[in-house]
Design brief:
25% strand; 620 residues; binds magnesium ion; 4 domains; alpha+beta; binds adenosine-5'-diphosphate; 5-stranded mixed sheet; Substrate Binding Domain Of DNAk, Chain A, domain 1; 6-stranded mixed sheet; Nucleotidyltransferase, domain 5
Length: 620
């Protein structure tokens, strides 16, 4: 798809604008580009202001301001300065309720399960619009530095982001005037920046340790033949550099009178961050502040800092061990460890990881707050068609399927399938004359759909009335490179068809995705037993239905005795249904089957035999 765009600065026409990589962070965002001359990715920005704080301040006349200026308004205008909007993207109030006190601005809570909105001075803003402001600022920067128009981007998201959060990120890009070529996982981008995955003949196991401003994520990736598979993710969405700052503030508070604590809390935050950075770069910190006309001398040295924040550091390592355990790996099986996020500049982070994995495995040669954007730029370059040597693929984290008879999950796209991908499967009706069929789409690993997450539903109407088992309904799942699913159902004999794009209203929390995966493992045995029971019941119900229809239509073919015996066997099978014992049900099926088989032969009724075989979807 060729595009023409106008460069506002130079006034010239350009056939195709630049493609950039964007790390849309919780605390800071950054834009990068592969330099066409060197072929190397570079962060775009003037020195000293490469990072754009992900903060949007709404002025009293309703104008949004983004970046460092907005960040200064955090203390002076807490109600009209939006920080951490990434935590709200694609989320409902229910998702964030537990952390509501964390936000200094107003988040509307009218509707539990709709996407949240933020209110500033009587005006409402969606997290998508606010994120779009940040993206638009990055786009403007990139354009003013390169002198070219920028209209396409690759944007990164945490590996645990669900469909809804990814879709919201994509929408924010669109709103900022960017065609989003792909949404990429942050750990994948970080690995790419280090060149991992470029050599398709090697298999690597990589740990990406990402400690940012407000969040901690650790991901274990397997890179094989250029495919990035997320083996596990763990983390704490409320643990980051800010918490280290807070510990420093608390440390200082003990030298101040209680009456000043509330005031000091607010005004010392930025100073604490400065102190942290200073001691981490090897200089002691000393500064005097005046609070309510009283002077205080604040000091901090590295050893004190390390000891008062040790428990926070330990928490990140606990997460890391959990991630390794989920991936069933020992530290010795990890080939590379990648440091991501500004907070990994604290020297003990590298030290502790080197102690665990060995010095030579820890990669920190790239700037940790740029590495995600740099990797996104590499991917952008590949997608723009500038390189033919690499092919980048991703995989789907959870299985996708539809509900079949008895509430069973029938998987069309198994978990960890490379995307984009397309799967087709045929189904039929279970009742004579069925003219519509509902196709409910689920995501998850459990055998019963009730235990999985419903993504959406599709109603196929206008199926011509035919005996059960005759219509041929083809269901197609198309999963595009961003993980967005399109489902299509078509009745082949008549050609009627329906399709939907699955865009859930709100999605799973990070904890939910993990729980679903763990659940599926711990319930695997009982799920199989349950599936067998459900299948037996379903088969029995089908059988009773079919035989009932046969008796109604073809009673003339049978003797009085045969009718009575058939009805009796149907009844005892019916009784067995309430029993949670699949063997009794199967015996009942066999008994009925054996007795009625000669009747079917007598009639050579196609409808009966075809209704007894094949997969059926519940009738509507
Ligand atoms: P995010 O991914 O959440 O947007 P970043 O990766 O930009 O966040 O990390 C921001 C955090 O990194 C802040 O808490 C900041 O204080 C911390 N940080 C930045 N530089 C340093 C440094 N030199 N030493 C310690 N912490 C730092
Ligand atoms: Mg980050």
């Amino acid at each position: 798809m060729a595009k023409i765009s106008i460069n506002i600065k130079s006034g010239t026409l350009e056939k195709e604008g630049l493609v950039v990589g964007i790390d849309l962070g919780t605390t800071n965002s950054i834009v990068a580009l592969v330099n066409p001359e060197t072929g190397m990715p570079e962060v775009l920005g003037r020195s000293g202001e490469l990072l754009v704080p992900s903060v949007v301040h709404i002025t009293h006349d309703g104008m949004p301001v983004v970046g460092s200026i907005a960040r200064q308004a955090l203390v002076s205008h807490p109600q009209s300065t939006i920080f951490s909007v990434k935590r709200l993207l694609g989320r409902s109030y229910k998702d964030i309720e537990a952390h509501a006190p964390y936000y200094t601005y107003r988040i509307l809570d009218e509707e539990d399960d709709k996407l949240v909105r933020v209110e500033v001075n009587g005006k409402y803003y969606t997290p998508i619009e606010l994120s779009a402001e940040i993206l638009a600022e990055l786009k403007r920067r990139a354009e003013s530095i390169t002198g070219k128009s920028v209209n396409r981007a690759v944007i990164t998201v945490p590996a645990y982001f669900n469909d809804s959060q990814r879709q919201a990120t994509r929408d924010a890009g669109k709103m900022a005037g960017l065609e989003v070529l792909r949404i990429v996982n942050e750990p994948t981008a970080a690995s790419l920046a280090y060149g991992l995955g470029m050599n398709t003949s090697e298999t690597k196991t990589v740990v990406v340790y990402d400690l940012g401003g407000g969040t901690f994520d650790v991901s274990v990736l397997r890179i094989e033949e250029g495919v990035f598979e997320v083996l596990s993710t763990q983390g704490d969405t409320y643990l980051g550099g800010d918490d280290f700052d807070r510990v420093i503030v608390h440390f200082w508070l003990q030298f101040m009178p209680e009456a000043l604590h509330a005031e000091a809390h607010k005004s010392l935050r930025l100073l604490a961050e400065e102190a942290k950075k200073q001691v981490c770069s090897g200089r002691e910190f000393e500064e005097s502040v005046t609070l309510s006309d009283e002077n205080f001398r604040l000091t901090l040295n590295f050893d004190t800092f390390e000891s008062i924040t040790r428990s926070l550091m330990d928490r990140t390592l606990d997460c890391l061990h959990m991630a390794l355990r989920d991936a069933k790996l020992s530290t010795g099986e990890v080939d590379d460890v990648i440091l991501v996020g500004g907070s990994t500049r604290m020297p003990f982070v590298k030290q502790r990881l080197a102690d665990l994995f060995g010095h030579d495995k820890v990669n920190d040669s790239l700037n940790p707050d740029e590495v995600v954007a740099l990797g996104a730029a590499v991917e952008a370059d590949v997608l723009a068609g500038n390189r033919n040597d690499i092919l980048l693929l991703d995989v789907t984290p959870l299985s996708l399927g539809i509900e079949t008879l008895g509430g069973l999950m029938d998987v069309l796209i198994p978990r960890n399938t490379k995307i984009p991908c397309k799967y087709v499967k045929s189904y039929t009706t279970s009742v004579d004359g069925q003219v519509k069929m509902s196709i409910a789409v689920y995501q998850g690993e459990r055998e019963l759909v009730a235990e999985n997450r419903k993504l959406g539903e599709l109603l196929l109407t206008g199926i011509p009335a035919m005996p059960a088992g005759l219509p041929k309904i083809e269901v197609t799942f198309l999963l595009n490179a961003d993980g967005i699913l399109t489902v299509e159902a078509k009745e082949l004999r008549s050609g009627v068809q329906q399709n939907i794009e699955i865009k859930p209203q709100y999605g799973l929390s990070d904890a939910d995705v993990e729980r679903m995966l763990l659940d599926s493992l711990s319930h695997a045995k009982e799920d199989v037993a349950l599936r067998m029971l459900v299948e037996a019941r379903t088969e029995a119900e089908q059988m009773i239905y079919t035989v009932g229809r046969f008796l109604e239509k073809n009673a003339a073919l049978l003797s009085e005795d045969e009718i009575i015996t058939t009805k009796q066997r149907c009844e005892s099978l019916e009784n067995a249904l309430s029993n949670p014992d699949k063997d009794t049900i199967l015996q009942g099926i066999d008994a009925l089957n054996e007795y009625t088989r000669p009747f079917a032969e007598r009639l050579m009724n196609k409808a009966v035999s075809s209704a007894l075989s094949g997969t059926h979807i519940d009738n509507v």
